[in-house]
Design goal:
6 helices, about 170 residues, about 40% helix, alpha+beta
Length: about 170
């Protein structure tokens, strides 16, 4: 933060928390201290170059053998890149969802380890299934025309092998 040790002692470091988050961050931490409970809170912290990065702090009060508070243990971790990656992933998912809806496509996800397929509403409708119906890979294959079943099964096997990027078109 570029703050001196003197200025950052106690709760002085809160001055470096983004103004929009400072009050809530302080409330959570001081409330946990007053109650002797653990806390975890995410916020933007101003660096010494005046830019902000996302951090998470977690802490808990330590007590002596008689149950009296004897200090506080807290951690501070930079999670900025993780938050940015989460945001990019969220935006990608929203874009994919909009593209699938616009093109009126069915979407699904297959986990070959559990043999579970997760189908969206449209895909289940294409196969004539109710929305809450459980689906596995064998059910999917039964829905493929018998002349195409072996070809589809081989393409999926290749796509889910360790030697593949997971992409296939059939």
């Amino acid at each position: 933060t570029g703050m001196s040790e003197k200025d950052s002692c106690g709760f002085g470091w809160l001055a470096a928390v983004h103004p929009d988050q400072r009050q809530e961050t302080e409330k959570i931490i001081k409330g946990a201290i007053a109650k002797g409970t653990e806390y975890s809170v995410e916020f933007k912290l101003r660096k010494n170059d005046s830019t902000y990065r996302w951090f998470v702090t977690s802490g808990r009060q330590n007590f002596d053998a008689t149950g009296e508070p004897e200090g506080y243990l807290a951690t501070l971790m930079d999670i900025h890149e993780q938050r940015r990656a989460d945001e990019v992933l969220r935006e990608s998912r929203e874009s994919l969802k909009m593209a699938v809806e616009t093109a009126e496509l069915g979407a699904w996800d297959y986990d070959p380890l559990t043999n579970v397929l997760q189908w969206d509403e449209r895909t289940k409708k294409m196969f004539g299934l109710p929305v809450g119906e459980f689906v596995n890979y064998e059910f999917f294959l039964k829905g493929i025309h018998e002349e195409d079943r072996d070809k589809v099964n081989k393409a999926v096997a290749i796509a889910t092998s360790g030697d593949s990027e997971g992409d296939y078109a059939i």
